[in-house]
Amino acid sequence: MIGIPLIEILEGKARLLVPNPEAYRVSHRTYSPSKTPVFFNPLMKDNRDLMIAVLTVLSNIPHRTVSFAESMGGIGVRTVRALVETNVKEAFYNDSHPLAVKLATENVERNGVLVRTKISSLDANVFQAIHSKSSNRVTYLDLDPFGSSAPYMFTAIGAVQHDGVLGVTSTDSAVLNGLHPSRSLARYGAWIEKTYMMRELGVRLLLGSLARMASSQDVGIVPLISYCESYYVRVYVKILRNKREARLSISKLGFVYYDEESLSWTLARFGETTRRYTGKPIGPIWTAPYCDKNFVRKIYDSSKGCLSPRVIKLLEVMLEELDSFGYIPLPLIAKKLKTNPVATATAVEKIREAGYEASPTIFGSDCIKTGIPPYEYLQFFKTNVLS
Ligand SMILES: C[S@@+](CC[C@H](N)C(=O)[O-])C[C@H]1O[C@@H](n2cnc3c(N)ncnc32)[C@H](O)[C@@H]1O
């Protein structure tokens, strides 16, 4: 009926028809989801599991009726899992590709959730704009495009209720990480250059861009969970629809002045004019915390048993991670000081012994966060950590 080779798989509690990977294998080792007529990437299961964990927390709040929407739903895996695995009451599935819609409809039917699903085949921006009417807004919206999320973020913000959550994946890491500064400026409205903390700046660029688009609609954002994988950045932000929150979140934007040679940097919020900054300006980006530890703790406690060891480890590092700006890759310090890198646990311990805060970070197992002033990094490591 769909006209492409399919197989049935089980993901979470959902039984799903998906394009048969064997029919789209590019080599004996590689299966390329983008080669299939309908997109499905089995490797994004961890990403979807975490979304289910977020929905579990949201939909277990007493007296709350939770609705779910996805504007680029592919085979409908997120819609089906949201309805089958959590207390979400109704779902709005959308995808502009007719074949995706056919397959998603089939998947929704075979999991017995058709009566709770509204299916459409619109451009994502049109779908989200329709949901921006106050009576149509949803509790949770998932935005999961090919490539950059930037062209869809404005309407996505509009489609989420007050106190609801927006989940965004952006699969343009090279741009987010500053490998193409003029493209970062064009897409996300900020100048980002390649730095040793590029993964964190990618997260902060995406959050900063969301905060600006939200505040132009008198909406504030509060980041709940943010992280990055090799080829994408993923953020979950709470949406607060009032002017005070809009002003508060926009006040968290700023610039970082970055000096490659000394590894040092200085943070500057808008309106701060009294200090002298050296280095290149990068921004505007989100300068406040990118995770809410209370929310991460709830996710961890409620869903630990359903998450892969990899996601559990990510949440554990989030819980331990300092809320400070920036991180240091230990191999880079070692390279600068012409010595061997020290193990992460050893670095954290020695920095703490010397009286500064330190923690592992979600941005790399060989990186740390610390309260040491950035202009002292090299001297501090030489004297206290590597001696
Ligand atoms: C990355 S896939 C989504 C994967 C899905 N969320 C999942 O977890 O499996 C992106 C989807 O967006 C759809 N798409 C691309 N451009 C679109 C647009 N402008 N409006 C609506 N859907 C679009 C594609 O057909 C594709 O199914």
Salient structural properties:
36% helix; 387 residues; Phenylalanyl-tRNA Synthetase, Chain B, domain 1; three-stranded antiparallel β-sheet; Rossmann fold; alpha/beta; binds S-adenosylmethionine; globular; 2 domains
Structure in a nutshell:
The chain is of the alpha/beta class.
Characterise the protein shown here.
- With 387 residues, the protein is of the alpha/beta class.
- The chain has two domains: 6-286, Vaccinia Virus protein VP39 (Rossmann fold), CATH 3.40.50; 328-387, N2,N2-dimethylguanosine tRNA methyltransferase, C-terminal domain (Phenylalanyl-tRNA Synthetase, Chain B, domain 1, 2-Layer Sandwich), CATH 3.30.56.
- Helix content is 36%, strand content 24%.
- The chain has 14 helices and 15 strands.
- The chain has helices at residues 45-59, 77-85, 98-110, 124-130, 150-158, 173-176, 181-188, 198-215, 243-250, 293-303, 309-320, 330-336, 344-353, 377-385, and strands spanning 6-11, 14-19, 67-70, 90-94, 117-120, 138-143, 160-170, 220-228, 233-240, 253-259, 264-269, 280-286, 328-329, 358-361, 364-370.
- A seven-stranded mixed β-sheet has the order 5-4-3-6-7-9-8, with helices on both faces. Strands 11-10-12 form a three-stranded antiparallel β-sheet.
- Strand 10 (253-259) and strand 11 form a beta hairpin.
- The radius of gyration is 22 Å and the shape is globular.
- The relative contact order is 0.09.
- Bound molecules: S-adenosylmethionine (SAM).
- S-adenosylmethionine binds next to helix 2.
